[in-house]
Structure formats: C-alpha cells, structure tokens
Amino acid sequence: MKRILAATETVAAVFLLLIALVTASNVLLRDLLAVQIPDWFDGSKLMMGIALFWGMAVATYHAGHICVDVLWERLGRANRRRLDLLASTVTLAFLAPLAWMVWAKVLTTGTQATMDLRLPMVWFYGVAACGAVAAALLALHRLWGVWHDAPVCDDTRLNEPTA
C-alpha cells in the first residue's frame, strides 16, 4: 500500500511541478523574448485536472480534506467509528460514480485536441481518469479499514512531533 500511495503522491506532485515550470517559463519567455510556449494555457489546465484527481486520491486515503470535527470530537469511540463509516461510505458513493463519469468523458472525447500543437486531449483525460479511479479505490480501502476497525492510515508523518 505504501508504494501505491507513494506513486499516487508522486503523480500529483509531478504534475503540480510541471504546471509551475510551464507557467513560470512562459512568463519569462513572454517578458524577455516576447514569445509564448505553444499550448501553455491548455496544457496547464489539463495538467491541473490530472493533479486534482490524483491529489483527491491522496486526500481521500489520509482523510486530509477539509472537515469540521466539532461533532466527531464530542462522540465516544463507538459513535466516532459509526460517523467515520458514514463519512467513508458517502465519500465512496460520490467518488465511484465520478470515476465512472470521467471515464465516460474519456471515451467520448474523440479527436478533440489542443489549440496550437493539436495534442490529443484523450491522453490528458485518461491520466486524470486513472486518478479518479485511484481516488475511488483508496476510498474503498479506507472504508474497508474503518469497517474492520483497522488503522487505515499507516503514515507516521502525521503523528511525528513538530520542531
């Protein structure tokens, strides 16, 4: 599981880095040489979609999305587990159809391409769809772990003291 999580985090991080590099490079080239990187805007939008879906997978597994724990903190252990089960089920119920619909979009993309370089969008959508599937599978893994009362997130970085 650690390898899958590391790969998922790496994909999200690489695409965020690529977005930053393309954007910064385009600004420098535009200001210094009065030229632009072809398809920089379309490419950065498509890469942002990829980074979002893969990042959503990581956040789902670690339960790292924005949450308000006012109710959860006041509950006992058994009711916390019940609330975690409900939240994990709702998350999976959202992510599974989302993954399905993203793949439906991939299959209906046809010959759509970017404006300048005519890069096929189906490849970008496909990588994003894999991230949506990863999010749904990691949500299922989290639900399974909560159901069996097993520690789902074995990442020790969350428990390390800060300096």
Q: Can you walk me through this structure?
A:
The chain starts with a helix and ends in a 16-residue tail after the last helix. The longest helix has 32 residues. With 163 residues, it is mostly helical.
**Shape annotation:** elongated
Helix residue percentage: over 70%
DSSP summary, beta strand count:
0
SS summary, helix count: 5
Radius of gyration, taken over Cα atoms and rounded to an integer in Å: 19 Å
Beta-strand portion reads under 5%
Largest sheet properties: none
Contiguous uncertain segments of 5+ residues:
154-163
Question: Summarize this, please?
Answer:
72% of the residues lie in helices and 0% in strands. With 163 residues, it is an all-alpha fold.
